[in-house]
């Protein structure tokens, strides 16, 4: 687990907000990690789309290139949406959970839109910390699968096709793939926040300093 220590007031506010969300998730879902994943991914699919939209408008307004940043943000949103589509197949949320999802998404979308509009660096830091907690949650989910608490059911076909998994892949392989995605989003959003703090436009290419971190995460997930 890689944790970015908060630096300054903005980072501390972002981290405190995410820890509050983690407390709510732990209280509401407890050990039901599949159900938690559905709500988590519904929310996680919002930031990339919001950020991509606002950065697109910024690029038009400022008449400057974006360094591939907009495409990456939209790809992040699509990746999170595919996480959601996968876990819906696994969990099949009931009507109450679907209502909770709709309310949560409506509140989070509007809150994140305004946060990104006025404080994009803080917004990316929030997602960096949000993805840190996602990695923690999926690691705990994986531990419960390994312990037999959750059945290691066959992977849904949508997950096999998306991650190009073997046809006999199980839930464990899906969780590992999702966790690796979240680790990548974690590092990239912290990088985005750092670049904005330095007054630079983030680039789509993975910075050299992040490559060893991602390599280590992949090795540990294997």
What does this protein structure show overall?
The chain has 222 residues and is an all-alpha fold. The chain has eight helices and no strands. The relative contact order is 0.14.
Q: Which keywords apply here?
A:
0% strand; 222 residues; 77% helix; single chain; globular; mainly alpha
How is this structure best summarized?
This protein has 222 residues and is mainly α. It has helices at residues 8-29, 33-62, 69-91, 95-118, 120-147, 157-163, 171-197, 211-221. 77% of the residues lie in helices and 0% in strands.
Structural class: mainly alpha
β content, as a range? under 5%
Tertiary shape: globular
Distance between the termini: 15 Å
What percent of residues adopt helix (DSSP H or I)?
over 70%
Report the major sheet.
none
Q: Residue-averaged pLDDT, rounded?
A: 84
Low-confidence blocks of residues: none
Task: Write the SSE topology.
Elements: H1 8-29, H2 33-62, H3 69-91, H4 95-118, H5 120-147, H6 157-163, H7 171-197, H8 211-221
Helix pairs in contact: 1-5, 2-3, 2-4, 2-5, 4-5, 5-7, 7-8
